Amino acid sequence: MVNSILMIPIHLDALYLKRERLVVEAMADLSIIPYFNRKRDVNPNIAHISEEIVSQPFQNQNLYLKAGIHLHWALPDALTKGIQDSDKKTVFPSVPNRWLVTRTLNGEKRQWVVESDYLYREGEGEQLGSIAYPIEIKNGNHQPFRYWLFWFLCGNGVYTDSFFSKIVLKVFPSKHFTIL
């Protein structure tokens, strides 16, 4: 359907690392927030205050980026600004959550689809490099966050975990690629 395609220009930054490197961690670690998981208290020794989860200045020493190419892209300003409606609610424009990535190398193209908003189910996804993303919960008996990771949807419809894995090097071995 031609009328359902949205082409968006984006700003893309790529960081190439020859070897693993220590980098500044996130401003807060939501994965250590205390909660009850319907069986037991999780992180009971942590007070439920921001001081406990925010990164301390000059002590960011637990986030390593693996060797490879790490991509960061930003949407155009027009898609990141909300408009207040008559009910005083801020409404943001719809943006895609699937991205076609095309790599061109020596005239040969390969393509992948990136699912940019994948959240693991409760209790899944904890691993080096995954990001704890806050979610709204209806009662206190659930994990107050989900782990967030980029996933590549391969041509055969199978999800492949790609965060800092070997597939990143296979997908982006050179600087010749396009994200649409």
Concise structural overview:
It is built from two helices and 15 strands. The chain has helices at 50-53, 166-171, and strands at 11-17, 21-23, 35-36, 41-42, 63-65, 68-74, 83-84, 90-91, 98-105, 108-115, 131-134, 145-148, 151-153, 159-161, 177-179.
Strand content: 25-35%
* Unreliable sequence segments: 155-180
**What is the succession of H and E elements?**
EEEEHEEEEEEEEEEHE
Strand order of the largest sheet: 14-13-10-9-15
Question: Can you describe this structure?
Answer:
This protein is 6% helix and 34% strand. The chain has 180 residues and is mainly beta. The protein has one domain. A 5-stranded antiparallel β-sheet has the order 14-13-10-9-15, with no helix packed on it. Strands 1-6 form a two-stranded antiparallel ribbon. It has a two-stranded antiparallel sheet with strand order 2-5. It is globular, with a radius of gyration of 19 Å. The relative contact order is 0.20. Mean pLDDT is 70; it is low at 155-180.
